Amino acid sequence: MPKSVRYKASSVVYFHGDTDERIYILKSGRVVLRSQDIETGQEIHDLVTTGEFFGVRSALGRYPREEDALVSTDAELIQFSVTEFEQVVSANTRIIVKMLKVFSSQLRRIHGKVSSMLKQQDTMDPEEGLHNSALFYYSTRRFDHARYIWSRYQELYPRGRYLEEARKNLERMGHGEASAVEAEASLRGDLSASPGGSRKSSVDNRPESPSKLFFEGERAFSRDDFEGAIEHFQRLLSAYPDDEEYALKAKIELGRSYFGKGDYAATVRHFSRLVQAVPRLPQMAEVLYYVGASYARNGNGDKAKAFLGKARSSGEDDPALVRRIDRALKDMEG
User: TPR repeat positions in this chain (predicted)?
Assistant: First the structure.
């Protein structure tokens, strides 16, 4: 039968490439799925929400894991074998519908990226394609692959357009100087010489990706660096206010960060505005809990009890949250 498994913060549930037929549900805590964008090669970080399955496709398809599953705070997971999972799903059509929606969305996203890559390949000549392949491996610090491809590039294109750049990067790798910063700047063709002979990337001021900002905020939060978490989530919302995948998550995490910092007035203001803007908020019970707990910490018992009561009635299907609410109410009595 399914069993409960506890993981400490900074541990790993599984790595990309692992062969494993176990499926998980996040019961409490925080888990991030780290994968690589098939189009850009950049890291993608997806936050697993409470009650969400992960590891399903690779387990059911019996192929290696497609991502790393990283535990960012202490977490409790429910672990299923494939047979156990199939029994649960067959008895609950809502789970089937939810999975189909998720898989459909993922397939549309993958299809869009593959189509984009194919269009790029139609207009890319072999020389550019070879050079870009080396840049990809260089940017992801897989220097053996990059070194081999650029060496072949020099043989095939002795007067090639990218010959000088290939030689410089080969020289860096030969001297052990191929840093991640140089690789990223070189990938975008943005390295320029400064008067002192050092190099500076012109992408320094460009906004980071929403997934990276979110992951950095999560990492700061897991270390109790609430100021750092607030900074990352605010930057994300400033640069990507309408991002479908990360904007709402960042708003939730920003409120939790205010609470963790002890700024209870800011927590109430932030979550009150969020509830007004998104009346059918999926995380409504958790938001109401933080508002109620903030009022309790500020000594407003009446409002605290009212919001905690609403949170409890809204979150009855989340046992971990109900326990936190009951504990908060008990603390007020004691």
Answer: 210-243, 248-281
* Spatial distance between the Cα atoms of 81 and 66, rounded to a whole number of angstroms: 18
Distance CA 68, CA 16 (A): 5
Task: Please name the amino acid found at residue 214.
Answer: F
Q: How many CB atoms lie within 10 A of CB 279?
A: 7
**Number of C-beta neighbours around residue 119 at 10 A:** 10
Give pLDDT tens digits along the chain (334 positions): 788 999 988 888 998 888 888 999 899 999 998 887 655 666 788 888 888 888 888 888 787 888 889 998 889 999 999 888 888 877 776 666 566 555 555 555 555 555 555 455 555 567 877 888 788 777 666 677 788 888 888 888 898 888 988 888 888 776 443 433 344 444 444 333 333 334 334 334 445 788 888 878 887 887 788 999 999 999 999 998 888 888 898 999 999 999 999 999 999 999 999 988 888 888 898 999 999 999 999 999 999 999 999 988 888 777 878 888 898 888 888 6
- Could you tell me which of 332, 255, 325 has the C-alpha nearest to residue 285? 325
Class of domain 263-334: mainly alpha
CATH 2.60.120.10: which residues of the chain? 3-119
| Alpha carbon distance 219, 213 (integer Å) | 10
Q: d(Cα 188, Cα 111) in Å, to the nearest integer?
A: 25
In degrees and rounded to multiples of 5, residue 283 shows phi and psi of: -95, 30
pTM for the whole thing? 0.46
CATH of 3-119, one of 2.102.10.10, 1.10.3430.10, 3.40.50.150, 2.60.120.10: 2.60.120.10
